[in-house]
Specification:
By secondary structure, this protein is α+β, with helices and mostly antiparallel strands. It is built from three helices and six strands. A six-stranded mixed beta sheet has the order 2-1-6-5-4-3. The longest helix is centred in the first third of the chain and has 17 residues. The chain is globular and about 45 Å long. The chain starts with 18 loop residues before the first helix and ends in a 7-residue tail after the last strand.
Amino acid sequence: MTATPSSPSVRPPLPPFTEESARAKVQAAEDAWNSRDPERVALAYTEDSAWRNRDRFLNGRAEIRAFLADKWERELEYRLRKELWAYTDNRISVRFEYEWHDASGQWWRSHGNEQWEFDAAGLMRRREASINDIPIKESDRRL
């Protein structure tokens, strides 16, 4: 059976990307991550997606889903902004920042960049993320 744009295994916009479609893909990712729903977010990745997130290496949707569930249990009131940095046929680079607080109430701002590679159905098959965290005062929040 061939995947169609309305099936869950296809995630428009599809490569090859234009500036407009790359921006739409970045916005869709930002919206999904801000939902803090591991199930929803994991559906954007191939079943065998490979991730590097900081110093962790994940393989497949199941590991991604578990990672995200754990992340959002620790990173409370998480709020993210992504910005398109560059794109090619099936790759997009973004810069991002997000804010969150831990269980003790300490607020953090996390900055980073990601490189994404997509399959023909618009699912992300590879994600490389470099992220740095800095403690902030609640009064210094931007998001």
